[in-house]
Design goal:
Blueprint lengths: L1 H8 L6 H24 L1 H4 L1 H7 L4 H21 L3 H27 L1 H24 L6 H19 L3
Helix pairs in contact: 2-5, 2-7, 4-5, 5-6, 6-7
Length: 160
């Protein structure tokens, strides 16, 4: 019985596979949302920014779209993942403040919770990527290994 309980509670160290999944989903969603700001500007780009009262929507909507596309791509491939997560966390905090808090004020917690579920998931996932990085299957890890190899080579070749 204790063996069964231990198997249920034991968490194997498979951090690279789940991180790859999180990176793929987070990166793809941000990439898609960034592209949609240009493809459907009235609905999700400048028009949406005007509707929710964002200042200078003709500048900020394309800027946010480019940030979402660029950072989404960086996260998908695992390049500068922690750095790319920062603007996306800010993006989600602004989205929650400008679109979900008004729902909370006007129609209540349940409507806001329903509307904000993706925003909260993207915010939490971006925070995870900021905290733990891209994982083993990433360009970040490959670059770190290359730098480590070059430093080892330099140290072995340098006269003492």
């Amino acid at each position: 019985m204790n063996d069964l309980f231990g198997r249920i509670l034991k968490t194997p160290d498979r951090s690279s596979a789940p991180l790859l999944l999180v990176r793929g989903v987070v990166g793809f969603v941000f990439l898609l949302e960034g592209i949609l700001k240009f493809v459907t500007p009235d609905k999700l780009g400048v028009g949406r920014f005007v509707k929710i009262g964002i200042p200078s929507p003709e500048v900020l909507a394309p800027f946010v779209g480019v940030v979402e596309i660029a950072c989404g791509l960086l996260i998908v491939v695992g390049l500068l993942t922690r750095l790319a997560a920062v603007p996306l966390i800010i993006d989600m905090l602004v989205a929650i403040a400008t679109t979900k808090i008004p729902i909370l004020v006007h129609t209540g917690v349940w409507d806001m919770a329903h509307e904000a579920r993706l925003d909260f998931a993207m915010l939490a996932s971006s925070c995870v990527l900021l905290a733990v990085g891209a994982g083993a299957h990433s360009i970040d890890t490959w670059l770190l290994k290359r730098v480590g190899q070059q430093q080892s080579l330099r140290m072995s070749l340098s006269p003492e």
